[in-house]
Amino acid sequence: MTRKSTVVLGMLGPTLDTGKTPERWSRWRPSVALCQHEDLIVDRFELLYQRRFDALAGTVMGDVRHASPETDIRGHVVEVDDPWDFEAVYGALHDFARAYPFAPDREDYLIHITTGTHVAQICLFLLTESRYFPGRLIQTSPPKRDRTELAAGSFTIIDLDLSKYDRIASRFQKEQREGVSFLKSGIDTRNAGYNRLIERIEHVAIASRAPILLMGPTGAGKSQLARKIYDLKKGRRQVSGDFVDLNCATIRGDGAMSSLFGHTKGSFTGALKDRPGLLRKAHEGVLFLDEIGELGADEQAMLLRAIEEKAFLPVGSDREVRSEFQLLAGTNRDLSQEVAAGRFREDLLARINLWTFRLPGLRERVEDIEPNLDYELDASARLLGVRITMSRDARERFLRFSTSREALWPGNFRDLNAAVTRMATLAPGGRIGPPIVEEEIARLSEAWRPAPAAGGAGGGEDGEDLVLAALGARRAAALDPFDRAQLAEVLRVLKGARSLSEAGRVLFAASRAKKKSVNDADRLRKYLARFEIEWSEVAGGG
Ligand SMILES: Nc1ncnc2c1ncn2[C@@H]1O[C@H](COP(=O)(O)OP(=O)(O)OP(=O)(O)O)[C@@H](O)[C@H]1O
Ligand SMILES: [Mg+2]
After folding, report:
1. For the chain, which residues score pLDDT lower than 50?
2. Are the C-beta atoms of residues 524 and 507 closer than 8 Å to each other?
3. Ligand 1 pocket: which of 194, 224, 373 to mutate (most atoms <8 Å of CB)?
4. Angle at CA 462, nearest 5°, toward 459 and 468?
5. Residue 305 near residue 314 (C-beta atoms within 8 A)
6. How high is the pLDDT of residue 520?
7. Ligand 2 centroid from CA 360, angstroms
8. Which ligand sits closest to the CA of 214?
9. pLDDT at position 451
């Protein structure tokens, strides 16, 4: 592999690089000295200077050629009226950087920051950090007085890609671990998928201001996570405003527009004074719209505009209001289905699902039930103000049940929290033993039992399992949820019936009463034939 060429970009230093008489050679001049290091070969030097320093630039370039014949030095006039005016200097250097034909695959760039005004140094730093100058900074210093160093002095190269510095990188990692742990409320979760998910959320929360959509079943922790994302960002000084949250299901109807976007006094009957609205309250902060799928069509349209243009019109006002907020949205509905059904704007969904994270329910992460149990026990202890312990038998029994197939946890954390709260409250002396656990398991099992079918022909079997048994997983998966739910109920009734006619009497209870002649068995047989299912295959004979 051939060595990359080393190219220095630097400003002429009208003070430090100065000198015309032969004495100049005994003085340290940063731009010339930079080319005199034995351990730094400068193949090319791009010297930036103002036209009024033309003569000095000529001397310096000549001296560099003399001291370092291998260096190809080139001058560039960069005009700035006032070298202490930040905007002017940044603008001029930015223009230079954009026009310069950087070829980082062939050349290594060193940006010299020892010369030029402090303003120029800051601008060079910023432009290098933002990669307009795709290189590293180089800082030079004069030789020490004791002259043990060479007359060229010394240099230090600073790479602004901080991840390259081990000690700094380990600080970042520590900070990231703290952030992840914070988002998990300190719970040491074990489910690998969940842990990856939270790590990703931490990363995005810190790196981005784009909308984030949190999906997942009820009680999976969407609202809590939204709040924690805000707290994390606030702690890292990424937001200065407030956390403003709204459950969109609570604002249907007339007041919805005004609570979101505000209104002006007198804009409708009852608008007695101006109302700022939640979007304005969330300025520079975070707006969490929970159940965003519940927003009405008008609100969706306004919200889209507010996200895209950071501006909107309050009700009854013709003056635009600006608000910059980060949007977090929560939903336990599948929004793409809502779009398909015409209830949610496709363009709004496209805006908010740049970052979509689906929080799994407890049943999908049974290995986390134990750490979550400990968390809930601690929380109950704090709430009740007593020490809560759980005997080993009790704990094992509870975990065996909690992680079994029977444990549905439909309310997820809410169910777990309620179960632990009940056990902790009932525990004599704060000690949860097996009887308390058995009682709780019985209570949960009862609560989670599927509701019996109308007509009482239900055999208590899970209809979903019957669909799988009758069709096999692949064919079952190809069904629409609508057909699947219907078939599940039909199979459940069939399973508990002695004949097709008996099942038909249950399933067609309403419509058969209006018919002159009934043949329920035939109706059912035809229905089953659509799925290529025979009565004999599914009969329970019960
Ligand atoms: N990671 C977690 N660990 C422990 N408890 C949690 C966690 N996340 C949420 N909880 C608790 O579970 C309960 C439900 O959480 P949350 O309100 O965030 O759920 P949700 O997903 O927003 O539900 P919904 O869809 O019904 O609004 C709250 O009491 C919350 O404190
Ligand atoms: Mg919620």
Report:
1. 453-460, 542
2. yes
3. 224
4. 120
5. no
6. 84
7. 14
8. 1
9. 62
User: Tokens 């409320």 sit at which residue?
Assistant: 185
Ligand 1 center from residue 492 Cα (angstroms): 33
3-state secondary structure of 24: helix
How high is the pLDDT of residue 89?
A: 96
Question: Tokens 């997983």 appear where?
Answer: 473
Q: Output the pLDDT for position 500.
A: 86
Give the model's pLDDT for residue 540: 64
CB 413 near ligand 1, within 6 Å: yes
The pLDDT, as a whole number, for residue 457 is 40
pLDDT score, position 459: 41
Q: For ligand 1, atom 9, which residue shows the shortest CA distance?
A: 221
Task: Give this prediction's pTM.
Answer: 0.70
Domains of the chain: 5-164 (3.40.50.10770), 176-266+274-358 (3.40.50.300), 363-448 (1.10.8.60), 463-538 (no CATH)
Cα–Cα distance measured from residue 263 to residue 524, given in angstroms and rounded to the nearest whole number? 57
Q: Which ligand is nearest to the CA of 245?
A: 2
458 neighbors 493 (Cβ within 8 angstroms): yes
In DSSP notation, 367-388 reads: GGHHHHHHHHHHHHHHHHTS--
pLDDT of residue 409: 94
> For position 505, what pLDDT does the model report?
84
The residue whose CA has the least distance to atom 16 of ligand 1 is 221
Is the distance from the beta carbon of residue 90 to the nearest atom of ligand 1 less than 6 Å?
no
Per-residue confidence (pLDDT) for residue 452, from 0 to 100: 56
